[in-house]
Design a protein that fits this description.
This protein has 153 residues and is of the alpha+beta class. It contains 4 helices and 4 strands, in the order ααααββββ. The longest helix is centred in the N-terminal third of the chain and has 19 residues. The chain is elongated and about 75 Å long.
């Protein structure tokens, strides 16, 4: 048996890393760097203890078998940080960021950018088409059935 197989067997049923754990890991690294460059890390014990506590929380969360509680904690973290994230949750509507809890169904409606584009329906095959706004009358060719029609954008 190889090492990767043993690790995958050990991690089976455990929570693993998510965005909250990753954030805590980055925070511990940043605090460690700040304390190293601004203060002398060996002068104070509390920064070291804080960094060790953050790393311990990350390990505890990653190795936890209580997946539902860790998922709820991550969901709460996602809700708190949603305003600060760039393009928050456009690609994943259910609020989770890791592949472990992504939905398995396809979205039936695309994310609409109605500010820059106009959405049309092909008269032949009823395919949904997106054309840029503000171009006046344009000739539209459906990429699915190659039907040509005129429309106002």
């Amino acid at each position: 048996m190889n090492f990767l197989y043993k690790v995958s067997e050990f991690m089976r049923g455990r929570y693993g890393l998510d965005s909250l754990s990753f954030f805590l890991l980055i925070l511990s690294f940043v605090v460690s760097l700040i304390m190293t460059f601004i203060f002398r890390l060996d002068m104070y014990a509390w920064p070291r203890l804080f960094v060790y506590a953050l790393i311990g929380i990350v390990l505890w969360r990653s190795l936890s078998r209580n997946v539902e509680s860790r998922r709820r904690e991550n969901e709460f973290f996602q809700k708190l940080t949603k305003p600060f994230r760039k393009g928050s949750q456009q690609s994943n509507p259910n609020g989770y960021d890791n592949g472990m809890y992504q939905t398995t169904f396809k979205e039936t409606t695309p994310s609409r950018d109605t500010k820059n584009y106009k959405y049309l329906k092909c008269p032949e095959c009823s395919a949904q088409l997106r054309v840029p706004k503000g171009k006046g009358k344009i000739n539209v060719t459906c990429p699915k059935c190659r039907a040509k029609f005129k429309s106002k954008s």
